[in-house]
Design a protein that fits this description.
By secondary structure, the protein is α/β, with parallel strands linked by helices. The protein is built from 19 helices and 17 strands. A 6-stranded antiparallel sheet has the order 3-2-1-6-5-4, with helices on both faces. A 5-stranded parallel sheet has the order 8-11-14-7-15.
């Protein structure tokens, strides 16, 4: 049963107590300045009354009822214009109201609005004394209090359901890595986390920008409040208002119930605007207004709500370039980039790739029910030699595939299962080519003073002659394989870049970047 239905039932009960031609419930709108009343339910009045607003200053009868305290009845010759003249339902001719009474209604000690009773017979309310009017008021106030309780419980349930969908319940994931780039990043996070500054998290696709946001929230003073995330890339312009700010039922076609927006959900906590560079310009303007004022107004509602939200934004785009091209608002960019944080690409993190691979292997062995998934020395070298255009996400997916292949090859009976280069599928040369010297290849990203990886074999021979005898180095062989694979994929898909990227399991922009680096021509 809707709120409107319950209001109409209350008015029907009132008309059972008092004989009249029309009854109305008018709610006092929470607006600054002069009081304004809006009908929320009518019985006996034309439907057009529901679309009207009645400023008390323009309607002296309503103003006197609000100020009356206990209600009153207007004399037939009061001479005050009636707001319902000509609005009574089923009138053959537009007639004036001749008898009118009403009273203010209170809920929790505050004036909620008015009840008005009207009749065409000037003597209709002769027998309605103060006691009967007080009984009508008590009936309505009890019903309104119950309705407010129901609405509050419904709003709380809707908020909790929305939070359950929008908020991660597990703890923040760890930002693994001992490279200088990651040490610097963690230091920057810890510096800005305790403040309420807006942070712009920059980095390529798949580097772990969401993990940075989680660490920022977990180390902030808002850690006990929700961290709410919204993917701006998946936000249609037509639904942006609803997703960000919520809406009231009936605000637009299809709005069959009230909806809580992400800003309200994050009130007191943190809101992550992921892929913020994808927002359409009209939505950027609306977002800027909220960031400037802190006020949120649901579409279809007259109520403005102040929210206390810390905003984090993440993007893989160069927003300065987007501003120069007119695709991103300069004022919004400056509002978001109060404290920019750049997340390093995986290829800049040196031997962190092995620590991350170990974490993903641990996850997979529990998921697959396998025992002791381990990287072989050759597989470790293959991971170190790869340039990871898809970053940490590419590594995660690659390790998942390698674990499945290794398990299918070795079975579940051994004390451990070794991940070999052929399970990784990085290139034909990964399983046979001798790794380049540790300092030249495996240690290329290692920070000064950091130990060698325990599974990385020591290479004592000079790098020149033996590598020449064994054929191309690991990196060259890997790139040769990648080049052939991309060329074959583009031929299979008639040069369609998106289709080839899907087959490769890569993001389209990363796939295009890899193809360009390898010198592979793209048909379209």
């Amino acid at each position: 049963m809707t709120t409107e239905t319950r209001f109409r039932q209350l008015l029907a009960a009132v008309r059972g107590l008092v004989r009249c031609d029309a009854a109305a419930l008018l709610r006092l709108l929470p607006e600054e300045g002069e009081p304004v009343l809006q009908p929320v339910a009518v019985d006996g009045l034309a439907e057009e009354a529901l679309g009207r607003r009645f400023p008390a200053a323009a309607h002296p009868r309503l103003a006197r009822l609000l100020a009356s305290g206990e209600g009153l009845r207007f004399a037939a010759d009061a001479g005050l214009p009636d707001p319902y003249d000509g609005l009574l339902e089923h009138q053959q001719e537009l007639e004036a109201v001749h008898d009118c009474m009403g009273a203010p209604l209170r809920v929790d000690g505050r004036v909620w609005g008015l009840v008005t009773l009207d009749a065409l017979d000037p003597h209709a309310f002769d027998e309605v004394g103060p006691q009967r009017l007080a009984a009508v008021v008590r009936l309505l106030e009890a019903g309104l209090a119950a309705e407010d309780t129901i609405a509050t419980l419904a709003q709380r349930a809707a908020r909790e359901q929305a939070l359950a969908r929008a908020v991660r319940r597990d703890g923040p994931r760890e930002l693994l890595g001992r490279s200088a780039a990651m040490v610097r990043l963690r230091g920057e996070i810890d510096t800005v986390a305790a403040s309420d500054l807006t942070v712009l998290i920059l980095g390529e696709t798949g580097v772990g920008k969401e993990l940075v946001a989680e660490r920022l929230h977990a180390r902030s003073t808002r850690q006990d409040r929700p961290l709410v995330q919204i993917n701006c890339a998946a936000l249609p312009e037509t639904l942006a208002d609803s997703e960000l700010f919520g809406h009231k039922r009936g605000a637009f076609t299809g709005a069959v119930a009230d909806r809580v927006g992400k800003f309200e959900l994050a009130d007191g906590g943190t809101l992550l605007l992921d892929e913020v560079g994808e927002l359409p310009l009209p939505v950027q303007a609306k977002l800027l207004r909220v960031l400037q004022s802190g006020d949120v107004q649901r579409p279809g509602s007259d109520r403005v709500q102040r929210v206390d939200v810390r905003v984090l934004a993440a993007t893989n785009r160069d927003l300065r370039e987007e501003v120069a091209r007119g695709r991103f608002r300069a004022d919004l960019y400056h509002r978001l980039s109060v404290y920019p944080l750049r997340v390093p690409a995986l290829r800049e993190r040196g031997r962190d790739v092995l620590a991350l691979a170990g974490s993903f292997l641990e996850e997979n062995q529990h998921r697959l029910g396998a025992r002791n998934l381990r990287l072989s020395p050759a597989a470790s070298q293959a991971l170190l030699a790869h340039d990871w255009p898809g970053n940490v996400r590419e590594l995660e997916h690659l390790i998942s595939r390698a674990a499945l292949r290794a398990l299918a090859t070795a079975g579940r009976g051994g004390r451990w299962i070794a991940i070999e280069p052929e399970h990784l599928g990085l290139g034909e040369g990964a399983s046979t080519a001798r790794p380049a010297p540790t300092e030249a290849v495996a240690g290329a990203g290692r920070e000064p003073g950091m130990p060698r990886d325990p599974v990385a074999p020591a290479v004592d021979a000079a790098p020149g002659a033996e590598a020449h005898a064994m054929g191309p180095g690991l990196r060259a062989a890997t790139e040769q394989f990648q080049r052939r694979w991309i060329e074959d994929a583009l031929r299979r898909h008639d040069g369609a870049m998106a289709a080839a990227a899907r087959e490769a399991g890569m993001d389209r922009s990363n796939f295009l970047r890899l193809a360009k680096r390898l010198g592979v021509g793209v048909a379209r």
